[in-house]
Amino acid sequence: MNQVALSMNVRRLGADDAAAFSALRREVTRENPIPMGLTFEEELTRTLDGFRAQLSSPLPNAVFGSFIEGELAATAAINRAGQFPSSHHKMVMWGVFTSPRLRRRGLSRQVVDTALQHAFDNGVNRVNLQVYVPNEPAITLYKSIGFVEYGVESEAVCLDGQYYNGVHMTLVKDRHNKPLHPTAFGVG
To answer: Stretch 110-133: mean pLDDT, rounded?
Structure first.
C-alpha cells in the first residue's frame, strides 16, 4: 500500500504560535487530562497572553513544535532549572504532548530529541522531567532515549478527586540515545 509523504518540520515556537499551542493543549487535555496534570476546565482558564509570554521566554528556554502540513502536532519544552548559575548545568523538560489524532508517528521523539539537543548545545549536562502516571507510552519513550527513573512523588496531582503519582526521570548528556539494557526495564 502506498503511503503519502507528509510535510513535517520542527521549529522553535514563538508568541505568534500561542493560539495553536493552546488549541493543541486543549485537544490533548480533553482526551486525557492525566499526562497534562490538570483538568480540562483548568486548561480552559489559560489565556493566550499567558501562552505568548511562555513562548517568548529568553533562550536557552525554548518550546519546540512539530508541524504536519502546517498544523502543530506535538511539542516539547525545555527550561532552566533555576535562575542562578549554580543550577545552569541542568534543565527541566515539560510540555511534551502529541495530538491524539497524530500519535504513533515518531513526533514526540522528534520534538524531545530536538529539545534535548538544544539543551546540550547550550552547555547543559542533565535534563530532568516528571511523568504523571499511568502513562506507559511516555515512560517507554523516555527510557528508550536514555532517561532513568530516580524517584516517585506520591499524589503529585489531584484530578477530579483522584490522585496520580509523578515519576521523576533524568538524563545525563552522555546517556542521550543510549538506552539501558532491556533487563534494566524488568524485561527478559
So the answer is: 95
**Residue 60 dihedral angles phi and psi, to the nearest 5°:** -85, 0
How crowded is the C-beta side of 83, counted as CA atoms within 13 Å?
1
* Residue 172 pLDDT level (bands cut at 50, 70, 90): very high
Backbone angles phi, psi at 63, to 5 degrees: -120, 130
φ/ψ (deg, to 5) at 41: -60, -40
Return the SS3 of 17: helix
Residue spans of alpha helices (H) in 32-152: 40-44, 48-55, 107-121, 136-145
Return the SS3 of 166: strand
Helix (H, G, I), strand (E, B) or coil at 131: strand
Is the pTM higher than 0.90?
A: no
Residue 39 to residue 66: CA distance in whole angstroms = 24
CB-based contacts of 152: which residues, under 8 Å, 6+ apart?
Answer: 165, 166, 167, 168
